[in-house]
Amino acid sequence: MKQNLIFVVILLVTLSMVNAIPLDKRATTFGPCPEGSLPILAVTLQPDPPVPGQNCTVTATGTIDSGINPGATLVAVALDGAHNVISSLASVNICSSGVTCPTTSLSVTTTFPVDASLPATYSISIVVIDENKAFVGCSYGAITG
């Protein structure tokens, strides 16, 4: 009887541990940037989450009501918990990447190397900056390793 009880306890503990282990990493969810009320971009990462020391492909799509003109840039930065930039990941001229300008909609894909020294937990901000250096679109996602 005592052996059966021990067996059942070990079995239940093992099953609860297996159930707690994530089988796949969660996809990064992008939402509005912490400050301001800029249009939100739809962002996907591949691989998701990014792997430090390897390349990552980011695709950003969205509508910018104020318009995208020649000189507009898509910028990707890594941020720490206090929203300080810890690494500049990518900077792409939107109108040179297949988007016909002027326009209000964009779909930009770029690949960048992920800094191997990034901490396990950080955030990525994808920002559209117009030709006057003003932020006109933004998305923010938390990366947990």
UniProtKB/TrEMBL annotation:
**Gene3D superfamilies named among the record's database cross-references:** 2.60.40.770
Q: Which SUPFAM superfamilies match?
A: E set domains
Pfam family for this entry, one? E1_DerP2_DerF2
Q: Supply the alphabetized keyword list.
A: Signal
Top-level lineage group:
Eukaryota
Does the entry feature the keyword rRNA-binding, yes or no? no
Q: Which residues does the UniProt record annotate as the domain MD-2-related lipid-recognition?
A: 29-138
Q: What InterPro entries does the record point to?
A: Ig_E-set, ML_dom
Signal peptide per UniProt: 1-20
Q: What is this protein called?
A: Phosphatidylglycerol/phosphatidylinositol transfer protein
- Organism equals Rhizophagus irregularis
